[in-house]
Amino acid sequence: MTKVYRIGLAMIGMMAVLATAAFVKVAILPRFDADSAQDVKRTRPVVVDAAAEPAAAPAAEPAAEPTPRAPLVFDHPESSPVADAAVPNVPVYGSPGAASPTKTLKNPTIEGVPLIFAVKERQGDWIKVQLPVRPNGATGWVKASDVKTRSVNTHIVVQVAERRLSAFRGSKLLMEAPVGVGKAKSPTPTGTFYVDISVKNPGQGYGRHLLSVAGFSNVLKNFGGGVGQIAIHGTSNLGTVGQFSSNGCLRLTNDDVVRLAGMVQTGSPVFILP
């Protein structure tokens, strides 16, 4: 009888562990599409790059010959305006003074983090913002009373062809590092984006830090419950850094991503160049 009782307790304990594991997996899956073990930033750490970093380095495309480095010619912003949501639900309108919103975004987001916009322009009591939704570069108008504005003086520049990431304060170079970028079949999208979330030790193969970028894969519309959002994140698979190795995300060494995260603020522009 004692033996049967102990076996029953063991089975119950095992079922509890499995149930807990299943809950944790669901809790951290959805907004990014991580390049998971299958290689693809809702608690948003599911982006297009590594939902579960495999033990062995994932297969990358053949190493490309480094592109000859040329001086970066770029019009660096000294500062950039950002809008933080100040109400639980932010209506987004198609034009200033429009009667009805085209969409409403929740604050905090479903990941439980503050909703952030990049500011494009202002007209009286209305602010035009870049939205953290598809399609890339989508904009809308919000009421100035629904947000609080601030400025950031840092930004990130990624040169895809050179597989290089640089961080700046104004025109001052803070750091540069090799970065893994998207493969030919799942390229990193180019354009102007911004950092909308910063997460320390995100787990799921994203290394020691993840900076969610408000940009989305043009190829992977969804993956693993996410929406194909990209991110800058760490990796322990050093062979993928500096290569065309991801499904769109930007991979740094863990040391480099921690260094970067300590320099840039949420809302910082991310300029991804071809």
Describe the structure.
The protein has 2 domains: 28-64 and 154-273, L,D-transpeptidase catalytic domain-like, CATH 2.40.440; 80-152, SH3 type barrels (Roll), CATH 2.30.30. Residues 1-30, 33-45 and 51-59 have low confidence and may be disordered. It has helices at residues 2-28, 254-261, and strands spanning 80-85, 89-92, 103-106, 116-123, 126-130, 139-143, 147-152, 154-159, 164-169, 172-178, 181-182, 191-200, 209-216, 229-235, 244-246, 250-253, 269-273. Helices cover 13% and strands 35% of the residues. It is mostly beta strands and 274 residues long.
The strand order across the widest sheet is: 10-9-8-17-12-13-14-16
Helix content: 10-25%
Question: Which shape, going by the Cα principal axes?
Answer: globular
Q: Please report the distance between the alpha carbons of the first and last residues.
A: 70 Å
Major sheet: 8 strands, mixed
What gyration radius follows from the Cα positions, in whole Å? 20 Å
Low-pLDDT parts are 1-30, 33-45, 51-59
Topology as H/E string? Answer: HEEEEEEEEEEEEEEEEHE
What is the typical, i.e. mean, pLDDT? 83
Question: Which features characterize this protein?
Answer:
L,D-transpeptidase catalytic domain-like, SH3 type barrels, 2 domains, eight-stranded mixed β-sheet, globular
Helices and strands, with pairings:
Layout: H1 2-28, E1 80-85, E2 89-92, E3 103-106, E4 116-123, E5 126-130, E6 139-143, E7 147-152, E8 154-159, E9 164-169, E10 172-178, E11 181-182, E12 191-200, E13 209-216, E14 229-235, E15 244-246, E16 250-253, H2 254-261, E17 269-273
Parallel strand pairs: 8-17, 11-15, 14-16
Antiparallel strand pairs: 1-4, 1-7, 2-3, 4-5, 5-6, 8-9, 9-10, 12-13, 12-17, 13-14
